[in-house]
Amino acid sequence: MLEELKKQVVKYALQADKSGLCKHRSGNFSIRDTKTNYVCITPTGMDREEMTYHDIIVLDLNAVVIESETSQRRPTSESLMHLEIYKHYANINAIAHTHSRYATAFSVLKKPIPAIVYEILGLGCKEGFVPIADYGRPGTLSLAENTAKALKKSDVALMQAHGVIAVDTVLKEALLKASYVEELAEIYYHTLVINNGKEPPYVPDTELQKWEYPAEITLLDKNVRTSK
Hints:
By secondary structure, the protein is an alpha+beta fold. It has six helices and ten strands. An eight-stranded mixed sheet has the order 4-3-2-1-5-10-9-8, sandwiched between helices. Strands 6-7 form a two-stranded antiparallel sheet. A hairpin with a 3-residue loop joins β9 and β10. It starts with a helix and ends in a 20-residue tail after the last helix.
């Protein structure tokens, strides 16, 4: 089971690299095994194009290395952040931490990304914006605690002067959320430029909460797979 999770970590870490969400050796990714609570996480200081599932480290929630097939590899220096999030949220089993450019620029300014388009609805942003996790030095428990706190009302957050954190039950969806954050950040940036620095109109939180799947669409019957 852990071997399959390791392969998924490599797959989506490499996908993040190829899509430009985090280049070179930046960013880190993990998946929690729901049976053991062990965490499969990317190693520190390794090019993702050279990474195989044998390089993925297994930790327990107390930051004890359980398995390292290639003994020279160490877990990412930001492992405490991943573990702190898993400790706080039983429903989170996958984490993507990226350093995408537009989103990171707003994290430097400590500027939350507002609901300029409806897509923010899929990011679990209960207050209508992508929140900011307060600054913490990378690798420290302070960073871990601040980031976990920011995820109380959202599945994504900007990390002050650092990057993006996105969570889900599976890594594919966590990475997708990180991608959406970058798209939102880029749109927000361009609207500010076009509008001479003035804030664009936002989609009100009350409007976001009204969304529901269209009742006018007739779906297939789940049992016979034909229209009702």
